[in-house]
Amino acid sequence: MLNLQRTDLFREAAYVGGEWSAGSGDSWQTIHNPADGERLGRVPCLTRAQVADAIRAADKAFAEYRQWTGKAKAAVLQRWAALMQEHKADLARIMTAEQGKPYAEAMGEIDYASSFLEWFGEEAKRIYGETIPAPRGTQRITVIRQPVGVCAAITPWNFPSGMVTRKVAPALAAGCTVLLKPAPQTPFSALALCVLAEEAGLPKGALSILTGNAEDIGAELIESETVRKLSFTGSTAVGKKLMAACAGTMKKLSLELGGNAPFIVFDDANLDAAVQGALASKFRNGGQTCVCANRFFVQAGIYDSFVERLTKAVISMRVGRGTDHGVTLGPLIDDAAFRKVERLVDDARAKGAQVRAGGQPHSAGPRFYTPTVLTEVDYSMSIMHEEIFGPVAAITRFTDEAEAITLANTTRYGLAAYFYTSDLNRSIRVTEALDYGIVGLNEGAISTEVAPFGGIKESGFGKEGSRHGIDEYSERKYVCVGNVS
Ligand code: NAP
């Protein structure tokens, strides 16, 4: 069915302390292909006692793994990256089957995911400390960096491999061990990565993949005093709950939460670049990314041309199963996601938005929505306040720069923002005025392993990627040596 070269990459098991586990054997989660609802397989629901065993295994592994040299950690991470490249087609097939994204996008995500292993493999050798001039001649002050310890990671379904390595790679590079709970829709990508991690030489217990009920697994991880950090990527609502729960054991936290990205096009923008950027930012992964343009603000002088060109490009998108040749837009992840998109479009239309393209379900199947362009959108509509997480471009007209900035910042989120202009001074002013953790200036595709990805406000805190990513998994220990003679 999946047509894999290496059938052993597809595992219907959890991965606990370096062993493949069927849990208690009597409770399972079934995974379906979102394109047609076909059953793909199942994974076990671990009991809380089994999660506790996994935590003990991670702790035991940590005692030894924390002693590894940067060079040794680098070698494993880089071998793992190379194995991902070697088995890229199989990994992409598994991803398209469980997540629905077009195969070409899945191949791109495997590159993105393996880039974190490569990058943090390199960084493992550069976890530098500091020497600080002491205020007294008899003292010497240094700062050393050490791994945080056993870390928990919880990931969403929209990037089934990328979200895994973006957390696991810096944690392992820093010398931490990791317990990861993947999203229930997409566990097979994470499990396939473990097969390759084992082959690359990752020691037993350094990485576990815990499948099953989110609340049980989450509670066991969060209540544990052994687990010193939680890194969560998902919705703001769940992030807030987890943050409150982590107060009990004062865990270190990274929260990569929801977004509501503005995409501003000024009159002086390069129109071709703006339309290309809009397509990349809005429609990648069917509009199901946290950094997706959610609200388009287009200046009056360029509004009609931008709408016309974007609509033309959107109408020509090819909707279908991710495995079909030439498809650029797959299904939404599940029925709930589909209903949300439908509700937001219907609400906008009822309140006066104009439908320029789409605005209805697509004939490819029950979870497919036709790529949509809405204009004359305003803040009375839910679509301006909620993450759409679907292939819908909602466009609002503005007249001047101050208005654009006010419109863009009117949200409780602060993850990514985009704007297009060819005016140098405006570039600087607007970059500085946008209340976001990431700004794409004349650029719609901003994700890369070399830059610090992360939000502000209710989009969370902490950085993933770049040299800053490793800070989240290491502590600075200040050492004061006295009585030096
Ligand atoms: P979600 O509902 O918050 O779920 C995310 C993960 O958390 C899933 O694995 C989920 O498992 C788990 N979870 C839910 N409740 C939990 C609990 N009480 N304890 C422990 N784990 C729990 O989000 P989603 O719908 O999967 O993902 C979409 C969201 O992720 C969007 O808001 C998107 O913007 C955000 N996102 C952010 C970034 C970023 O970098 N900022 C990147 C990608 C996605 P169950 O499904 O089993 O409950």
TrEMBL record:
Assigned EC number: 1.2.1.16, 1.2.1.20, 1.2.1.79
Enzyme class: oxidoreductase
Record keywords: Oxidoreductase
A GO MF label: succinate-semialdehyde dehydrogenase (NADP+) activity
Origin superkingdom: Bacteria
Domain Aldehyde dehydrogenase residues, every copy: 23-479
SUPFAM superfamilies, per database record: ALDH-like
UniProt cross-references to PROSITE patterns, sorted A to Z: ALDEHYDE_DEHYDR_CYS, ALDEHYDE_DEHYDR_GLU
Annotated catalytic residues: E256
Pfam families xrefs: Aldedh (PF00171)
First and last residue of the signal peptide: none
Keyword Oxidoreductase: yes
InterPro entries (UniProt xref): Ald_DH/histidinol_DH (IPR016161), Ald_DH_C (IPR016163), Ald_DH_CS_CYS (IPR016160), Ald_DH_CS_GLU (IPR029510), Ald_DH_N (IPR016162), Aldehyde_DH_dom (IPR015590), Aldehyde_DH_Superfamily (IPR050740), Succ_semiAld_DH (IPR010102)
Similarity-based family: Belongs to the aldehyde dehydrogenase family.
PANTHER family for the chain: SUCCINATE-SEMIALDEHYDE DEHYDROGENASE, MITOCHONDRIAL
Protein name: Succinate-semialdehyde dehydrogenase/glutarate-semialdehyde dehydrogenase
Source organism of this protein record: Caballeronia udeis
